[in-house]
Amino acid sequence: MPIATVNPATGETLKTFDAFGAEEIERRVATAEAAFRQYRLTGFDERARLLNRAADLLEQDEPEIARTMTVEMGKPIAGARAEAAKCVKAMRWYAEHAAELLAEEHPSDADVKDSGASRASVHYRPLGVVLAVMPWNFPLWQVVRFAAPALMAGNTGLLKHASNVPRTALYLEDLFHRAGFPAGCFQTLLVGSGAIEGILRDRRVAAATLTGSEPAGRSVAAIAGDEVKKTVLELGGSDPYVVMPSADIERAAKTAVTARVQNNGQSCIAAKRFIVHEDVYDAFAARFTAGMRDLTVGDPLDESTDVGPLSSEQGRADLEELVEDALSRGATALCGGQRPKEHERGWFYAPTVLADITEAMRIHHEEAFGPVATLYRVAGLDEAVALANDTPFGLSSNVWTRDEADVRRFVRDLEAGGVFFNGMTASHPALPFGGVKRSGYGRELSAHGIREFCDVTTVWHGADPADGRG
Q1: What letter does residue 105 receive in the DSSP assignment?
Q2: Measured CA distances, 157 to 42, 47, 127, 217, 306 (Å)
Q3: Half-sphere exposure of residue 296: CA atoms within 13 angstroms, side-chain side
Q4: Is 274 helix (H, G, I), strand (E, B) or coil?
């Protein structure tokens, strides 16, 4: 894939970029490693000052960078502004809390004495240069939720962004430069995917984090494993959205629409499989389908647009294949199921609800990355849990119920990195985020996220015989 800005609403190529050659890659890796040797010595107050400055600049730049994201990957402009604001919030959160999250830990006096020490402590130390391989769907947020904790921990970052969002990638490098971070603390690498292995195998690169497809995650994990380097992976998702009889059906159906089509349906944590108890199935299906049908599809720069285009022509083709396979095997399209006739240019696809899904259909097993929902009817809680877990993925999940017995059961039995009750899955700086099974491993955000990019060091001091403990 060429490194280029291509407007998905029109298919027009706006600008292409030359990939960095070996010499420029070497210069940037060397600069990142040299920067780490000095930056790791800075205190939390100084790092917080720099990160707060970056947050201030991003807040000022919000209209400009929101438009850039929309033009590059097609998200509605209101969502792009919200994404920028969320990044500002995360930066400020980590600037405020990093010192506390990475403070020295001290075992109890009894445990210290039992270990034969006079004193002992646990320290969090930065890893070094971290390679971030990031996707196009949330081109600002995915990077900032890595960069904010990594920089506050004292690491330096190299960003290999998706090839269709180069302007956003370059903006991020410039943002941290303007904020005053030392040269080399955060750099963008304009390279294709073929360059990742060489960079990751470089001895100066300590670790990697990747958000993306399962094949990309397997590749990076295999390379890093061969080099014995730390990785954090956030891969695909096919999140269940379970609706039980005690649910507020009106709210559940309205939220379901947003949960499915956020970011034009191109979100790993979007609800994708809607599993509804037979007692409320008809009422939910009618409201949900009506809500999906009423969405406005159009120019993502138009404030009235709910759903913009998919990010690429290939992405739409992949989605169409899943839908056509399902329809050919007996699925019913309650709405959508095709390209909207009023949008001949660009890579648009109509919001779609498919019912009568069976295991014979690809869409039952694969992630649908676009505004397509699958709808299932279940007879009870056991069947709901089994169907929710019948996927290779386990990123997050949504459950609508007012029954505490239901809550306990779903918390215990759902195979997912998160369970969100009576609302839709969302990420927040204070809450750990990540999946299980083929959705990846490790966690982003919260204390768990910042500690992923640290070495945990035990410091032990032997007892002095003079103090009676020797």
Answers
A1: B
A2: 16, 14, 11, 19, 34
A3: 10
A4: strand
**Domains detected in the chain:** 4-235+439-459 (3.40.605.10), 239-421 (3.40.309.10)
Backbone CA torsion sign across 326, 330, 336, 340? positive
Cα 312 to Cα 7: distance, rounded to the nearest angstrom: 9
C-alpha distances (whole Å) from 367 to each of 8, 200, 234 are 21, 28, 14
d(CA 299, CA 27): 41
Instruction: Compute the distance between CA of residue 183 and CA of residue 31 in angstroms, rounded to an integer.
Output: 8
Residues annotated catalytic, as ranges? 234, 268
Which pTM value belongs to this model?
Answer: 0.96
Number of helices (H) and strands (E) in the chain: give both, helices first.
15, 19
**DSSP 3-state helix, strand, coil percentages of the chain (rounded to 5)?**
45, 20, 35
pLDDT digits (tens, 9 = 90+) for 226-241: 999 999 999 999 999 9
Q: Rounded to a whole number, what is the distance in angstroms from the first to the last CA of the chain?
A: 66
Distance of alpha carbon 74 from alpha carbon 71, whole angstroms: 6
Q: Is the dihedral of CA 191, 132, 74, 367 positive or negative?
A: positive
- Rounded Cα distance between 346 and 334, Å, is 24
User: What region, left, alpha or beta, does residue 182 occupy, with left being phi > 0 and alpha being psi -120 to 50 degrees?
Assistant: beta
Predicted confidence (pLDDT) per residue in 341-394, tens digit: 888 899 999 999 999 999 999 999 999 999 999 999 999 999 999 999 999 999
